Amino acid sequence: MYAAYDSDLRDHLLSFHHGNRGFGHKLGAVLIVTSDLRGFDMIGERNQPWIDGGLFAMSLAYAFHAAGLGACMMNWSEDADHDQRLRAEFDIPDNEVIITFLGVGHLPEVFEVAASPRPAVNDVLREVQLR
């Protein structure tokens, strides 16, 4: 995992990320959550870095919230060329896959959040059945 606390460094890092306009400059820090591919050596583990990294990132976001800080996941859905430019600029080795960016900061007293309607349980849950 990598962190940018300095505002100039944070802003430079966020210039590589699409989707933070309007709030990125307000973040206290930006973290890059990575997963080291050297810990996964079997073909059956080919997706495990993203699963484990995503679980780690969610747990980290929950920990920040529990500590009274705001945390915002920011996806890293970039092509290989863009990914390599970021890696070269910030010295992130090829054996680490970038899972997500995580913005962290103090929460203002009042703020707006996006809200989506909650789907009904039956819309997202199915009971497993034999064929």
Structure, described:
By secondary structure, the chain is α+β, with helices and mostly antiparallel strands. It has one domain: NADH Oxidase, CATH 3.40.109.10. Helix content is 32%, strand content 22%. It has helices at 7-14, 48-66, 80-90, 121-124; strands at 2-4, 29-36, 69-75, 96-106. A four-stranded antiparallel sheet has the order 1-2-4-3. The longest helix has 19 residues, at 48-66.
Q: What's the structural blueprint in terms of helices and strands?
A:
Layout: E1 2-4, H1 7-14, E2 29-36, H2 48-66, E3 69-75, H3 80-90, E4 96-106, H4 121-124
Antiparallel strand pairs: 1-2, 2-4, 3-4
Key terms:
single chain; 131 residues; NADH Oxidase; four-stranded antiparallel sheet; 22% strand; Nitroreductase-like
What spatial order of strands do you see in the largest sheet? 1-2-4-3
Low-confidence stretches: none
Number of DSSP strands?
4
User: What is the rounded distance between the termini?
Assistant: 44 Å
Question: For this structure, what is the CATH homologous superfamily?
Answer: NADH Oxidase
Q: What is the CATH class name?
A: Alpha Beta
| Mean of residue pLDDT values | 93
Helix content: 25-40%
Per CATH, what is the topology?
Answer: NADH Oxidase
Output the radius of gyration: 17 Å
